[in-house]
Amino acid sequence: MKFGQVDNPGAVDFTLPPDAPQTAKILAKHKSTGPFEVYIGCAKWNRTDLKGFYPRGTKDELEYYATQFNSIELNATFYGMPKWEQVETWRNKTPEDFKFFPKVSDLITHYRRLNNVEEPIQTFSNAVSNFQEKLGMAFMQLHDNFKPKDFAKLEAALRIFPKEFPLAVEVRNAEWFEPAMLEQFCRLLEELHMVNIVVDTAGRRDMLHMRLTSGEAFVRYVGANHPSDIDRLDDWIDRIEKWRNEGLNKLYFFVHQNIELESPLLATHFIQKMNERFGLDLHLPAKQAAQKSMFD
Known about the structure:
CATH class: Alpha Beta
Radius of gyration: 18 Å
Strand content: 5-15%
Number of strands: 9
Strand order of the largest sheet: 3-2-1-9-8-7
CATH superfamily: Protein of unknown function UPF0759
Low-confidence stretches: none
CATH topology: TIM Barrel
Structural class: alpha/beta
Shape: globular
Order of helices and strands: HEHEHHEHHEHEHEEEHEH
Distance between the termini: 23 Å
Mean pLDDT: 94
Number of helices: 10
Largest sheet: 6 strands, parallel
CATH architecture: Alpha-Beta Barrel
């Protein structure tokens, strides 16, 4: 993941900004006494990207991955419109408690740029709904040159998705994060019961808007292949604890790297810290002898 990459991560101030004022109110509105649902994973299960993660002799990468993590940010559905048969195959390879978070097809967001997308949105929604109880939440990522001048187009596209279809949205252009525009965007997501994605990446600190729109938080964390990655994850534990105390019900946290090699190791560190802080019992992925890390 190259978006937001910088040449010198050591020069970046990685301090998490304060929450948007509306976040505490949103969380209070959704506060419940139910269990804290936490899903942590990587963006891919490809053996080439996650070199060293798979034991020698592994025959099916997804089957093994799903024994180590409880979720996957599924980018394969971005590069090709998913077919329900493929979705069913993926679903059947994973345990009952595993969740998929498929990315909306680039046909919708990048090629058609939300023009004439009723049919492809229906096709995408129908296909990924075949994950059934293993569908965590789909997410739509807009091109970084998609600007608020096309707000009406975005609103129209979001309203095409079936009601109750779980969807998160990631806007990237800097103009979306100007306070008035961000608030207009977030109010739309609140109305539609959709989630505003938070992105933590070195070169785009404005995407750490900390403006939640429901009792769920969807965080895409991008490490910089730098020793600061560990401290950054530890800082997230404190913020998540604050959100949990205020009413956070569900957390979806996906770990990326510009070079994905160490993503499973960073995700494992994060799982361990989450277990310790919140009394969770999330499985800790096994470290293979072939896994190397600059942080060891």
